[in-house]
User: What shape does this take?
Amino acid sequence: MTIPCATYRLQLRNGMTFDRATALIPYWQSLGISHLYLSPVFTAPEGSTHGYDVSDANEIDPRIGGRAGFDRLVAALHQAGLALILDIVPNHMAASLENPWWRDVIEHGEQSRYAHYFDIDWSRRLTLPFLGDSFEAVLAAGEIRVLPDPNTGKPVMAYFDNYYPLTPDSWQGREQEVLALTETPALAALHAQQPWQLMSWRDAHRELSYRRFFEITGLVGVRVEDDEVFDATHQLILELVHSGAVAGLRIDHIDGLADPQGYVTRLRQACGADCYITVEKITAEGEQLPEDWPVAGTTGYEFIATLAQALVDNSQVAKLQASWQQISQRKISLAEDLRAAKQLMVTHNFRGEFTTLVSIALGLAHHEHARVSESALRDALREVLIAFPVYRTYGTAQGLPPASARLLSQVVAGIQLHDRAALDFIVTVLSGAVSPSAVVTATEFRLRFQQLTGPLMAKSVEDTLFFRQCALLALNEVGAEPLPQRFSVANFHQRMQERLTAQPQGISTTATHDTKRGEDARARLYSLSEAPEQWAESVNRWRQQHQLHVIPLADGPAPEPEVEWMLYQALAGIWPNTQHPEEPLSLQSLEARFLPFVEKALREAKLRTDWSEQNAEYETAVLNYARQLLSPLNHAFLQDFHTTLQPFIEAGRVNSLAQSAIKLTAPGVPDIYQGSEVSDLSLVDPDNRREPDFTLLQHWLTQPDARIQEGWRNGAFKQQFTARLLHLRQSKPELFRAGDYQPLALSGPAQHLLVAYARSLGTDSVIVIVPRLPLHPTRWEATAVNLPAALAFHHYREWISGISYHAHDRFPLDSFNPKVPLVLVRQN
Assistant: This one.
């Protein structure tokens, strides 16, 4: 397998095309990456902003340059000595009329040659939940018509600019008669003849007939476990791999598949041994990828969580949480809040999927003569889903593998139910211990159960809990553990050593298109854990300044105190490094980014408003509150906020360099998300998918070393620092791919302010020393790194400054800048 030295993630679409990317190759080459890592390139519906809604898996999207543009990019990359990694999406496709396979299924129903391509329940009509109201309501309002299709001329049922093809049996031989239909009863009768039924989007959570991606009805599950479907959806992907155009694949949402292991095994066989393959998977505390998956590793969300171990002040986190509790008058009980979020997902957001599982289980119980009631099965299944601590198990038609069986036993042992017969029956079904005639149905239950636990966990934690519990937003990140934990440097070292053993070739990331905030925003907010009293006092002061803008509503104040806390902290994370507190254009730009985040945060929390049932009065009040925070007329607050943030901004820069140094030298393949090589103060999507100013980035990278220090505030120093370490990785690829990871002991009064480790392979060594807890600056007087025998008494060159040192068995740090990591490269 060809292992990248480092990758650069680029988001296509929204103006970024293959030809524009080709023009940027000299920049990436100078930066020091080995692989360009692209978001999906396959054709998506018009207007797609991300490409994960693939509508044609075997065509490269003409809107971003098509095959010709792609080929030009590949040729230019190869000429520059770079390679390409593609993001592929095997789990779902666009449930769009622009998807020819899906359109054919709509037209021909279960008789379509593509009917088995999608995960559809054909025991009933295919549901199309894309109406603004019920079918009866939109029909009565005159919004449903029969028209000739603008492209084919065939009769279609039109709803605004959506043209749903009619099944041929309902119109062939009487085309003009059908086109002339206008009366409500006749249109309703025609609709009833179709293999599909139009319905309100609000009903999708309980009545959908196909598996969707999370809660997105516009993305339909694909059955790649079927050999024909795998071949059809991977034809172009494999062609690109075999031709040498593509060197690696990133698999989106691996846990959504019916059989992840079977999929990656088949993909590896089809791609060959040299293709670099990683999977997007969230691993829980202590969880590793299954050892028998033939992949390099994950896409690195767990790496972000590991960085918090090194950069959060564990001794002060409790004070910050106590301040949040005092302000909000709410108790921090993550376990209870996680349960509440999961219960909401089971009973409401994924009600349809849950009901389907209950129905299958009830049928199995009758078949197996199990004495359990429907209510008992429902209660037991709900409790198992709520208690599940990881995304999923990996059972197949053969049952549960040993690791998954052990996990299930542990989950069930912790569930408190008076009637355990239903619980025991669910374990029986999941384990496959049923009669031979029930095996097929039990397998269906097992696969659907496993495909539900992942979305339940993701939507409960990332998209609900993390928008409710906001004591320290930096901890609310994709891949982070949702339950209380202790942070320590010792934990950090342990996880890095585990990473070296489990997936030394997996991706190490600090930002992606899906993270909740940019890596520099997170680095800045880590420092709040060092000054909880100062932060709480500031929030109370700002709340007092704006108390007249809190609107009393029937269901409580808007915003409520905990939302105020969240607003100030989120704004602190994105406040520009060089922001003048009252510069109107800059404030206007901030507002344009901040208000959509606020709206999203309120709806994701699902407390007083939601995506499906918006509380307009509440949202308006909170958005107005957030808007006036950034008003140029709000002089006193803006100046106060700006001044208060300065030490946190300074500390954030130190943390930013620290996490960059770790990412670029610790086990794993570092990924640079677009623009994060400089200051990345973004919010959750769509804010984090904005295109960086590549013209400015190219200009900064060409600046002479003498100007590096000028870039401390604007991010240019971070870019230069990143480039230096990327070139170090290029010069020592085997050291960083396979070298040992050794924690180094520290001594002296500032030892708690440092993280030190070495990467070694034979006589090749690199010592990395990074600062932590930088809010209160201090020199490193009388503090040293204690070197073991294999590292002592050698000459080292500090890679950033270029200065050489001779190290004894104790490397003193008195003379070094405590704001900048040290990377000492052994000189042989």
User: Anything to note?
Assistant: The mean pLDDT is 95. The first helix runs from residue 18 to 23. The chain is about 45% helix and 15% strand. The two ends are 29 Å apart (CA to CA).
